[in-house]
């Protein structure tokens, strides 16, 4: 087996399918936005901006929602997206399916238009960096169904323009199962959106939530869903139906000090179309996708072979045309042949 190097990982063409734009807000930009929007975040310099939160999903979410409060104008949303797209280009990410959480902003009095127009403008400019980006709008699961319905309505003109291709579901999972949003997701599907959903690891009723997402909501992809390995029948279904599953090992490490190594390697061995992703890099030790690939491989003893397959899975399970997939898979083969 050839030795895996950081250099090899860095050059490998890849897609990122699970990352929240709000979770990419780095301390420098957070500080700058706070300053220009006259928001006191209790920091005298970017070095004072504290993204630590102890452990657990609830604790992480608190820090996450606190950080994004500085995003208020179209320029702010442009800047956070642009900064991230530059990072993606450096990480040799060719295709990005990016989450955003509109309700986390509209609930603070920011217009939906402000959010989407800022993000979209950066996405258009990002094409010059060689990063092709699509947007996935996530509903916050602790918010009401009515709020999700209004958000879907607000998104309609942008979806029709092709600015948003999918809907997802994230945030506080306890007592907010996939079924709560069954009708919203059915409506989104009717409108032509792709569907995905977070099923965070080790939640109350994790396996039941995964089952609902796969069998009732009929998601096109599953985010996290690591507890599926507890139900071999459900795992076999995921594999058979070729439903993509996005794992974020470094993010797990930062919220619970384990990388879900067993789940990820089991899914991989069973032939699931699993990809590795960064989730909220600015809150996960500043680890972007290349760090995620490399560190996880180091942890479980994976070499080039496995990471090549992971990169292939990322394109195979992305929401691009078959021709585009073929072209990206060819880029991987060409890269491997040359290296
Ligand atoms: Zn996530």
TrEMBL record:
Q: Domain Adenosine deaminase: where?
A: 13-334
Residues the UniProt record annotates as site (Important for catalytic activity): 224
Chemical reaction(s) catalysed: adenine + H2O + H(+) = hypoxanthine + NH4(+)
Which residues of this UniProt protein bind substrate? 280
Entry function:
Catalyzes the hydrolytic deamination of adenine to hypoxanthine. Plays an important role in the purine salvage pathway and in nitrogen catabolism.
Q: Which InterPro entries match?
A: A/AMP_deam_AS (IPR006650), A_deaminase_dom (IPR001365), ADE (IPR028892), Ado/ade_deaminase (IPR006330), Metal_Hydrolase (IPR032466)
Q: Name the domain of life this protein comes from.
A: Bacteria
Protein's UniProt name: Adenine deaminase
Q: Which GO terms describe its molecular function?
A: hydrolase activity
Per the record, the similarity remark reads:
Belongs to the metallo-dependent hydrolases superfamily. Adenosine and AMP deaminases family. Adenine deaminase type 2 subfamily.
Classification via Pfam families = A_deaminase
**UniProt remark on cofactor binding:** Binds 1 zinc ion per subunit.
Cofactors named for this entry: Zn(2+)
Q: Is NAD among this UniProt entry's keywords? A: no
**What UniProt keywords are attached to this protein's entry?**
Cytoplasm, Hydrolase, Metal-binding, Nucleotide metabolism, Zinc
UniProt binding sites for Zn(2+)? 18, 20, 198, 279
Q: What is its EC number?
A: 3.5.4.2
- Gene name, please? add
> Could you list the residue ranges that cross the membrane?
none
Q: Does the keyword Transmembrane helix apply?
A: no
User: What HAMAP family does the record tag this protein with?
Assistant: Adenine_deaminase
């Amino acid at each position: 087996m050839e030795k895996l190097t950081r250099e090899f990982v860095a050059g490998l063409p890849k897609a990122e399918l699970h990352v929240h734009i709000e979770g990419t807000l780095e301390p420098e930009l957070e500080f700058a936005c706070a300053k220009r929007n006259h928001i006191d975040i209790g920091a005298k310099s970017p070095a004072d901006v504290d993204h630590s939160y102890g452990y657990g999903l609830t604790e992480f979410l608190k820090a996450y929602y606190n950080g994004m409060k500085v995003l208020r104008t179209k320029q702010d949303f442009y800047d956070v997206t642009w900064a991230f797209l530059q990072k993606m280009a450096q990480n040799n990410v060719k295709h990005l399916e990016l989450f955003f959480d509109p309700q986390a902003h509209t609930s603070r009095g920011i217009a939906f238009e402000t959010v989407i127009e800022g993000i979209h403008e950066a996405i258009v400019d990002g094409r010059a960096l060689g990063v092709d980006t699509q947007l996935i709008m996530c509903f916050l699961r602790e918010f009401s169904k009515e709020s999700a319905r209004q958000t879907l309505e607000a998104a309609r003109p942008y979806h029709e323009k092709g600015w948003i291709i999918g809907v997802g579901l994230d945030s506080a999972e306890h007592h907010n199962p996939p079924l709560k949003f069954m009708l919203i997701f059915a409506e989104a599907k009717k409108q032509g959106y792709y569907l995905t959903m977070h099923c965070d690891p080790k939640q109350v009723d994790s396996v039941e939530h995964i089952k609902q997402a796969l069998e009732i909501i009929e998601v096109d992809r599953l985010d996290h869903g690591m507890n599926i390995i507890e139900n071999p029948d459900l795992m076999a279904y995921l594999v058979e139906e070729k439903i993509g599953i996005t794992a974020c090992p470094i993010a797990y490490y930062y919220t619970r000090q384990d990388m879900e190594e067993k789940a990820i390697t089991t899914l991989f061995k069973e032939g699931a179309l699993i990809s590795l992703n960064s989730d909220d890099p600015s809150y996960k030790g500043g680890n972007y996708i290349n760090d995620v690939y490399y560190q996880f491989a180091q942890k479980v003893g994976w070499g080039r072979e496995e990471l090549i397959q992971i990169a292939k899975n990322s394109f195979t399970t992305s929401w691009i045309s078959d021709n585009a997939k073929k072209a990206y898979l060819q880029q991987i083969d060409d890269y491997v042949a040359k290296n």
